[in-house]
User: Fold this.
Amino acid sequence: MKEHVHPIAVVGFLCLFFLLTTIKGVCAGRAWQSNYIKISGVVRDAANGEAIPGVTVYAATGKTGVTTNERGAYSLNVPAGRGTLLVSFVGYGKDSINYNSTRDIVLNIPLRRATVQLSEVNVVGARERHDNVRSVMSGISSIDINTIKTSPALLGEADVIKSIKLLPGISSVGEAATGFNVRGGSIDQNLVLLDDVPIFNTSHLFGFFSVFNPDALESITLYRGGVPAQYGGRIASVLDVKQREGNRTNYLLSGGIALISGRLTVEGPITKEKSSFIVAGRSSYSDWLLKRVPDVNIKNSRASFYDISAKAGYTFNEKSKLTLFGYRSYDRFGFSGDTLYNWSTNAATIKYTRIFNTDFYADLTGVLTNYSFKVLTEEPATASEYSNGIKLANLKADFYLTKNRHQVTFGASAVNYRFAQGELQPASGQSEVQPVVLPEEHALESALYWNDEVKLSDKITVMYGLRYSVYAVYGPASVYLYQAGEPRQEGTITDTLNYSSGEVIKSYHGLEPRLSVNIGLGKNSAVKIGYNRNRQYLHLISNTTSISPTDIWKTSNTYLKPQIGDQVSVGYFRNSGDNRFEGALELYYKRIENIHDYKNGAILYLNKMIETDLLPGKGRAYGLETSISKTAGRLTGWVNYTYSRTEIAVNGATAEETINQGNYYPASYDKPHTLNLVSSYELNKRLVASLNFTYSTGRPITAPVAHYVIDGYIVPDFGERNAYRIPDYHRLDLSLAVLPNRSRNKRWEGTWNIAVYNVYGRKNPYSVFFKQVFGSPPRAYQLAVVGVPLPSISYDFKFR
Assistant:
């Protein structure tokens, strides 16, 4: 009997699960001891009424604290009688609230932004949001939006991803590289979410800018160590970016103008105090700049992008809320000639929140995403359009319960994928290109999870979780069978299996345990231990270190097994100077199963038997991360150093399927040493000077070690894979921010930012390639993307 996948059944199960829980509810329990009471409420921005997630609410009397959840709610048990709540969050003023009660009470807290924001900006791992010592998870970082906006920026465009790359354990392969590498992971091993929408390409203009508009963002959180069980599908990290819902009390216009791009954001109430909206748009106008460059090749090139997002929230009553979100980004890029690249993301989410009581609420979320990549060739004889992409539909139910000393999250999700593997069509009647269409692939990923954070004692906090995921690839499809004991290639195909629509081709499943332990060594120090197992069923097929037009997202299948990552970490964390200084030292080791590499001369473009060029292997990554941060005062910043190694071993059954004799070799993104220095100094209340310096080891390459002359032709002989490295990378950036005069109650506020990127004009190599000149051995050439200082000036504004 044929086994079939029924996505509708899975979605129906989730809806039924949500409805039954809604009907049943949860009985609110009394405090965990008779002499304790429960205090709960919502923390909102005092100016615009938006709920603030991640706020620390600390009970000084009970010496216990929590952070507000995604809807700004908190709940904690404290000793009955008199007490004080201390409330703090990055970018906001601190507040203290006294209480005197012997019964459970509700305290809704309005929190005001700090008058001088930059003095209070916490740069990394904010103590208000994810306390360096008290938080149970290690390897978690946050960056405040104001930090991003006042940091030195390339061509004046504030960039989330470039700021992420300055954190410990994060690196990239070069100047214009898309994505980022976390603790030895490849760029496809990072789950990037924008309001629950998976982002498959985080770059504009091939990596010069990211797709996130900083004016519209609420929070940016990167999990690289302890990953809660609600996240799954990637084995390296999770970057969770949340967008604001808009001002609930007043209309606000904000934006910015830079050398090659502009931004505009409009927000305000739909129904005052009940619903709000925010629409944010950003567009480049770089083509006009290219037209003014004397070089003909650059003058005839094209480069542009735009993105737009919209979000609205409507509160029906105190128990229910609806949130809508939409997003589109588009890029067009073409060098002088006849080839034009464009890629786009279209996405939407709908979220219904149901609050059962102060301790228990649920979210039901639906997500649609469509990512596509196209290459247009305009030369008449070869005019063509190539495209690939990925679509997904996701439905998930998440439940949040605070009970006594427990903070529990549990839920279920189902994601249906459609993979467009590649299509080539002629683009004119004169074109000699023959159409090629690779069949679409389909898969369904489902998961159940449970996560609990519990304070066992004053010194020990534990977060444990379990995720169970099931993945099934289903038809219609055809699968080639190959001769056993022989390398997979066209000549060794023995048969073809055909699967009908909905028929299961291959399925995988497994448990993903998560554990984080915080052992307090006193008020200002702690040891944290963590373990995570993650399964990744999606793969980016690419033999380049950065995203290129031939890259495709591909499902796990009969021959391409899911990657499995097991990571252990241990770290020592210490604060001093009234939490103004934060230090961390963390060791990690990661083992990766089913990582893949490529045969020599692999063909990935429109290859209907792509499994013949993929080689399964195993990987390992290990390293040391150290950081020291100063989080408050006129001088803020951090310095961090990371030692990180990533190695792969491919030992196949034949020499053709083996790399470097089966020994471990560096991955193409392996960069052992990385040093970052980030600093901001408040010269006065209106002038802030910032400095960024970064250094990293050059990435590995494969180089020719000899050459042969055969019939007069010189043939290079390449050595072992990734045995050599390009020169090291280092860069210095400077900026000066001129802030508005906050002593005046003005409706218009403007901020100037003057910056120089790559101050000393370092020609950092993006790649090294080998070119053969007739009659001589291959010679090495170095390509630098940015080899000169790039000054910029930008202006940001707000109008109330």
